[in-house]
Please model this.
Amino acid sequence: MIILQTVTPAYRNNFFTFLKRSLNNNFILLGGDCYFDKAIKSDPSILFKDHVRNYYFFNRKVLFQMGMWHIVLKKNRLILEMNPRIISNWVILLLRKWSGKKTILWGHAWPRDGSESKSDKLRNIMRRLADEIIVYTKTQQFELQNKMPSKKIIAAPNSIYYKKQMVTNQEANLINNIIYVGRLTSSKKPMLLVKSFHLSIKNLPVEANLLLVGDGGERELIENYIKQNDLFKRIKLLGHIDDYEKLKKLYSTSLASVSPGYVGLSATQSFGFGVPLIISKYEQHSPEIEAVIINQNSVFFNTDSITSLSQEIVNFYKQKELWVGKRADICNFCKENYSVEAMAESFLI
Model:
C-alpha cells in the first residue's frame, strides 16, 4: 500500500503509524511539507514518511508534486487525495488507468459547496478514473453510492486517537472551562467566541476560563482584544498544541468545547474526551458533523450571533450536572465509531 499526501499533519500521526505497524515493509507514505493553506504543515515526527516536493501555482490554487514518480507508477495499491486541484494526481490516474494498475481516491465525496455545485463535475471525472473511493463518513458513502452504483465506495471515519486514548473526566469540581481547539483564522471565527465569552463572564462562575488552543492570522487581533478589555485572567491564549497528554489535561477541565465557525476534526477530538460541543448552526460543515447528536453530545447556537453563543455558554453552566453526566456516553460513542482502529480497518480491507 502506498499513500500519497499533500502533507502529513500531526493529527494523522496515529493513523499512519497504525498502518505502518500493520503492514510493516508493505506500507509506503509519501508527502510534502506544506498544504494549500500554509498553516497546515507536515509533522516532522512521522519519521517513516518519504519526502516529495510540492510546487504551487496561481496563488496556491493548484499543486504539482515531484519526487514520487519512480514509485507511484509501479504495480501497487496506490491511494491518492481526491482533490482536483492536484494536477499531478490527474496524470497519475490517467497513466495507471491506461496501464491497468489499481488506484484508490481518498477524501471528501463532495466539494465544500455540496454535491450540486459546478465544481463537482470536475471531481466526478476524477472519481470515475479511480477503481475505488474512500470517503470520510457513512453518509457520504451512501450519497456517493447512489450517484455511482457500480463503483466500490468505502467509509473511513475521520479519526485522531486510538480507543485506549479516549478517556474522560467526570469530577465536576475540576470541570470549569470552555475550550476551543483549531486554527485562529477568520473562517473558524475564534473572535466571535472571544466576544461571546466576554459577554458571558458576568453570569459565569469565577473559576470559568476560556482556553484557546491554536495559532493563525487572528492571534494578534485576539491578543489586542484581551489586552484592551483586561481579560488576561479569564481568557488563556495557549498557542498550537498537538501533544496528546497536554490536550487530554485541557479537555479534562473543560465543560464544553466550541465551534464558532464550521465543524471540523476537532469535533471528534472533543467527543473522544467526553466533552460536548457548542456548534454554529448554519455553516458549510466538514464531514465530522455526522458525529453530532443534538442534545446528546452537542447544541447549536445561531450563526454569527454573539448573544446566542453567549446564552448557550451560560446554559451549559446552568446545566453542568446534566452535561457532566453525559461525558462517559459521549466518550464511548466516539470510541466505537471514530477511533484510529475503525478508520484503519477500511484501508486494510
Remarks:
- The domain at 2-162+340-347 is CATH 3.40.50 (Rossmann fold).
- The two ends are 11 Å apart (CA to CA).
- The mean pLDDT is 95.
- The longest strand covers residues 254-259.
